[in-house]
């Protein structure tokens, strides 16, 4: 049946029984295909019926559907003509999130949470202002995203104007990556588990079922009215009553007929409406349902029959795991060290510390800005907070880093996971902006470890600093083999390869140190002398790097952050300030959005591979100026 669905209106001809069959078929498709490629499995298994109902009731793309955060859009892709999942999240294949270049049905590409209602607010205002009052805007927001401040800022504005046709669907599965934290989560959890709701719903359905086919028809007719009746018993109307927004629910998010009834009421209401659907993450797949950690939120390649990984265990530890273990060791030694996560306890590696020191890990929900300012307060109170967060999500809290942490000289350590090119998750997940954004924050100190041993060392050095913000950044994946330094300078720079009065000084930043050594091998094969250094602390720039640059013909910096305004720029400026006129080439990522592909594929696309970098250096030494890195392919 799925193969016959080429666009949403193909759903209109299906009977209720056929829709149930289609939902089952979609789940089998997702389990089979995502197990081959990896991706967000649990979230999509949980929204099959909800997505079917949305596309039956609304007319996408005329009625835009916005997904928050977008990792639950696989079913949406299937229903809008995209059923080739063979290269999901790989170069040339479907993106793991909505992407406008794929379909007119995709609206918001960013996978940063809690922004959907602001988008919906803006689009609906534009429709109203331009006379398109017959168009609806639908935002599907997870209960995890309700912990983000932007959601409530948007709700405040949406409630100020009741003329717009805006439908907010709360996909309530009690989880973001892991169980949702905080007071709002506890409130919604009470609704999901409240006996009066489940009892009344079950008893009413069984009563009408006893009356046969007429009874079932009558039940469908009154079901919409029971939503409001049940909401008064469950207390859910209390959460939104002061916002002056119509509320429908709670509704079984796996009952297509109930969902359609509620969504039609919301569509025809003529003003903003919240539809509260209760779903199960991982629905229909036993391994996901039994996974208490994250319900198979995101998986690698797995055996679909068991849910077990087919990739095999890596012989190298992961960056995240290395951080997790070392932080626990530090916390064992220092009672003042605490940790903060923004709804990503397991993905950032803080679960181990929570298990060992449960009262010293704070999950603030999807609220990065709040996390950073809370950390400043914790530091003022005599603690040393470690804020573990994905690099790409750090963008959201830049103002708080500057004004609440740096201005107050707070001893806060930021640990940025997934820094640089992350690969399959695409443009919104690449951690390519942190170095350029943070390197000019007054007083900040930024560390970029090249391997797991350096991560441990630099983390300890970071938490020892109590009068300024510190940053430790590292990429996704497994740590490389440790790279031994020939020596360490007095100011902490590791010299990985050294030749006096070298032709070239290569500054390999963090995970790019290995690439720097590969480039040196190629150059030395052509009788070009090379010195390679790893700064370890990339901000501030060490004086020994400036001294070494004085006796070099050229300086090359290599970083996996955006080149414009990056660390290379800082090195060049500090050289000029010290009166050193050695030419500097700053190699890094282009200032453009990079599509999804494997990390090594992307680095090669942008010219950050050993052969391309070495060829550019040779050309420069020969006096022929060539681009040091190819521009990224547009995608």
Automatic annotation (TrEMBL):
Domain of life where this protein originates: Bacteria
Cross-referenced Pfam families: DXP_synthase_N, Transket_pyr, Transketolase_C
Named cofactor requirement(s): thiamine diphosphate; Mg(2+)
Catalysis: reaction(s): D-glyceraldehyde 3-phosphate + pyruvate + H(+) = 1-deoxy-D-xylulose 5-phosphate + CO2
PROSITE patterns registered for this protein in UniProt: TRANSKETOLASE_2
Cofactor descriptive note: Binds 1 thiamine pyrophosphate per subunit. Binds 1 Mg(2+) ion per subunit.
Binding residues annotated for thiamine diphosphate, in chain numbering: 71, 111-113, 144-145, 173, 285, 368
GO annotation, biological process: isopentenyl diphosphate biosynthetic process, methylerythritol 4-phosphate pathway; terpenoid biosynthetic process; thiamine biosynthetic process
ATP-binding found in the keyword field: no
Keyword Manganese appears in the UniProt entry: no
Record keywords: Isoprene biosynthesis, Magnesium, Metal-binding, Thiamine biosynthesis, Thiamine pyrophosphate, Transferase
EC assignment: 2.2.1.7
GO cellular component: cytosol
Domain (Transketolase-like pyrimidine-binding): residue spans on this chain: 317-481
Residues reported to bind Mg(2+): 143, 173
SUPFAM superfamilies (alphabetical): Thiamin diphosphate-binding fold (THDP-binding), TK C-terminal domain-like
Pathway: Metabolic intermediate biosynthesis; 1-deoxy-D-xylulose 5-phosphate biosynthesis; 1-deoxy-D-xylulose 5-phosphate from D-glyceraldehyde 3-phosphate and pyruvate: step 1/1
Gene3D superfamilies linked to this entry: 3.40.50.920, 3.40.50.970
Subunit structure: Homodimer.
PANTHER family per record: 1-D-DEOXYXYLULOSE 5-PHOSPHATE SYNTHASE-RELATED, 1-DEOXY-D-XYLULOSE-5-PHOSPHATE SYNTHASE, CHLOROPLASTIC
Protein name from the UniProt record: 1-deoxy-D-xylulose-5-phosphate synthase
Species the sequence originates in: Agrococcus casei LMG 22410
């Amino acid at each position: 049946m799925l193969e016959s669905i080429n666009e949403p209106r193909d759903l209109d001809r299906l009977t209720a029984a056929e829709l149930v069959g289609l939902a089952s078929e979609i789940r089998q498709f997702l389990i089979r295909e995502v197990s081959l490629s990896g991706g967000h499995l649990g979230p999509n298994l949980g929204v099959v019926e909800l997505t079917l109902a949305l596309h039956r009731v609304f007319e996408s793309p005329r009625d835009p559907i916005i997904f928050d955060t977008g990792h639950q859009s696989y079913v949406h892709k299937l229903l809008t003509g995209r059923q080739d999942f063979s290269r999901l999240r790989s170069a040339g294949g479907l993106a793991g999130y909505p992407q406008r270049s794929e379909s007119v049905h995709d609206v918001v590409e960013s996978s940063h949470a809690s922004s959907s209602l602001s988008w919906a607010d803006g689009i609906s205002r534009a429709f109203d202002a331009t006379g398109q009052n017959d168009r609806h805007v639908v935002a599907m927001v997870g209960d995890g995203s309700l912990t983000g401040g932007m959601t409530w800022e948007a709700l405040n504005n949406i409630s100020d104007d009741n003329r717009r046709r805006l439908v907010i669907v709360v996909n309530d599965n009690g989880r973001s990556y892991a169980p949702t934290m905080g007071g709002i989560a506890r409130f919604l959890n009470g609704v999901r588990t409240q006996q009066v709701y489940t009892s009344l719903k079950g008893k009413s359905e069984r009563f009408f079922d006893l009356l046969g086919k007429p009874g079932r028809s009558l039940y469908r007719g009154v079901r919409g009215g029971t939503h409001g009746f049940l909401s008064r018993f469950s207390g859910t109307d209390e959460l939104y009553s002061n916002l002056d927004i119509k509320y429908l629910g709670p509704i079984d998010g796996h009952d297509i007929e109930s969902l359609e009834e509620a969504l039609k009421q919301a569509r025809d209401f003529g003003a903003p409406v919240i539809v509260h659907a209760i779903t199960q993450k991982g629905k229909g797949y036993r391994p996901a349902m039994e996974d208490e950690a994250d319900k198979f939120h995101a998986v690698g390649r797995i055996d679909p029959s068991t849910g077990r990984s087919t990739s095999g265990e890596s012989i190298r530890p992961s960056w995240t795991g290395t951080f997790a273990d070392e932080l626990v060791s530090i916390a064992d030694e220092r009672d003042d060290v605490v940790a903060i996560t923004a709804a990503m306890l397991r993905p950032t590696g803080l679960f181990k510390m929570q298990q060992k020191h449960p009262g010293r890990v704070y999950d603030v929900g999807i609220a990065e800005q709040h996390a950073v300012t809370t950390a400043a307060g914790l530091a003022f109170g005599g603690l040393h907070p470690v804020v573990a967060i994905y690099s790409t999500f750090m963008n959201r809290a830049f103002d708080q880093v500057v004004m609440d942490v740096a201005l107050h000289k707070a001893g806060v350590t930021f640990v940025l996971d997934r820094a640089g090119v992350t690969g399959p998750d695409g443009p919104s997940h690449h951690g390519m902006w942190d170095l350029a954004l943070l390197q000019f924050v007054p007083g900040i100190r930024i560390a970029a470890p090249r391997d797991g041993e350096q991560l441990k060392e630099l983390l300890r050095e970071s938490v020892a600093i109590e009068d300024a913000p510190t940053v430790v950044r590292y990429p996704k994946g497994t740590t490389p083999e440790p790279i031994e330094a020939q020596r360490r300078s007095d100011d902490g720079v590791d010299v990985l390869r050294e030749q006096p009065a070298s032709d070239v000084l290569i500054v390999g930043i963090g995970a790019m140190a290995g690439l720097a050594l590969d480039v040196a091998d190629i150059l030395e094969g052509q009788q070009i002398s090379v010195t390679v250094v790893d700064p370890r602390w990339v901000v501030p720039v060490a004086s020994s790097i400036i001294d070494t640059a004085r006796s070099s013909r050229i300086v090359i910096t290599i970083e996996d952050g955006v080149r414009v305004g990056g660390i290379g720029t800082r090195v060049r400026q500090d050289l000029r300030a010290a009166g050193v006129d050695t030419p500097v080439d700053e190699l890094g990522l282009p200032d453009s959005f990079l599509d999804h592909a494997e990390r090594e594929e992307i680095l090669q696309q942008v010219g950050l591979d050993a052969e391309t970098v070495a060829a550019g250096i040779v050309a420069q030494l020969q006096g022929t100026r060539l681009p040091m890195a190819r521009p990224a392919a547009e995608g």
